[in-house]
Design goal:
Length: 370
């Protein structure tokens, strides 16, 4: 009677061992599949992240192209810009560019995520509307200051060409994104652009437009543009300058009318910063003198009558960009000036805002590849 029991116990033991073995196999298989799935997910994550970073690098480079940043100029394949890191990790991207033709560029970004690298390239065309928008407003004078050589600062309106004097530095990076025209640099000592009498400015209304980037404000009252026969307030027919007031750097606009009234408006807002492009507009409508900084209204004063164009002796003094005539060391500007224009009318705020917005270029992506 004992043998059957022994046989049954043996069969039960075999079933237990088989169950354990099957469970072990199934468990190992599950772990193996899970490991494969985990590795695949990690690789997919890195691939997705690297693509995102490469595209971010292209967007970064294209932003610099649209805003005219000189930072991109040195970014070549041998010397890319970056690395720029993401989220405090070691993942990063670099980018560089190559000019294909005027206004067209090939931009490349390379992303690195762990051991994975991805490269994206875009062929883009950059277009600036600033010059065309300015011309639509019909300026009387327009000195783009984009000459790369010589001594003549061409007036696009053919009314009063200027002369580069005392070593003005040509061919500097300009203020307008996507615009191939350059700016000029002033040493803060004695150089300037003499634009003559600017003889078309003899009316009751005026607008001055100037882009500038100060290297410093060592001369607080540096002239951006000035038509004067001395340094005293009443010796200025008109001028736009910087000025220090209340410990802050601001814009200033001064004008004399034929009634002998000299008025000055100092911006009540809009602190100036060295190393940053600033757009200044100064307008006179026959009564109100207004100042705008980067498209925003920052100051007001009043005057009355036609703008004076002669000094007390009946002569018409010269106008200078970047300094104050007739003394070239009295109020020199140190930095870059670009796109100077004068109108025989008072532009309104909408027109000024539109011009400021046009500093950022349009960009067309012609092709994109990975």
């Amino acid at each position: 009677m004992r043998k059957p029991k022994t046989r049954q116990a043996g069969v039960a033991m075999l079933l237990v061992l088989a169950t354990i073995a099957m469970a072990s196999v199934l468990g190992l298989s599950y772990l193996s599949v899970t490991s494969v799935k985990f590795a695949g997910s990690a690789n997919l994550l890195r691939a997705t992240r690297s693509r995102y970073l490469a595209e971010s690098g292209l967007q970064h480079a294209m932003h610099l192209l649209r805003t005219g940043s000189p930072a991109l100029s040195a970014a070549t394949s041998a010397n890319p810009m970056g690395p720029f890191h993401a989220d405090g990790t070691s993942d990063s991207y670099v980018f560089y560019h190559e000019q294909i033709s005027p206004g067209e560029y090939r931009v490349t970004a390379r992303a690195t995520c762990g051991e994975l690298t991805r490269t994206s390239t875009a062929h883009v065309r950059v277009r600036s509307d600033y010059a065309s928008r300015l011309q639509e407003l019909d300026p009387e004078h327009c000195w783009r200051l984009g000459e790369l050589g010589g001594t003549v600062a061409v007036d696009q309106e053919h009314h009063s060409d200027g002369t580069y004097e005392n070593g003005v530095l040509l061919g500097q990076f300009g203020a307008i994104g996507g615009d191939l025209d350059t700016a000029v640099g002033f040493d803060g000592f004695n150089d300037h652009v003499n634009v003559g009498e600017a003889k078309e400015v003899e009316k009751k209304q005026l607008t001055f437009l100037i882009w500038f980037k100060a290297e410093d404000f060592a001369v607080p009252s540096a002239r951006l543009i000035s038509k004067a026969y001395g340094n005293l307030p009443q010796e200025h027919l008109w001028m736009v300058s910087t000025v220090k007031t209340g410990g802050k750097m601001r814009l200033r606009f001064r004008l004399t009318t034929k009634y002998g009234l000299t008025s000055t408006v100092v911006a009540s807002d809009g602190d100036l910063e060295a190393g940053k492009w600033t757009f200044v507009a100064a307008t006179y409508d026959g009564l109100r003198m207004k100042l705008y900084k980067d498209g925003e209204y920052v100051g007001l004063s009043y005057n009355f009558g036609d703008v004076e164009e002669k000094d007390p002796w009946g002569d018409k003094p010269d106008a200078w960009i970047g300094n104050n005539p007739p003394d070239d060391t009295s109020a020199p500007f140190h930095g870059l000036i670009d796109e100077v224009a004068i109108f025989k009318k008072a532009l309104d705020m909408g027109q000024i805002e539109s011009l400021y917005a046009a500093r950022v270029a349009s960009l067309d992506v012609l092709s994109w590849s990975e």
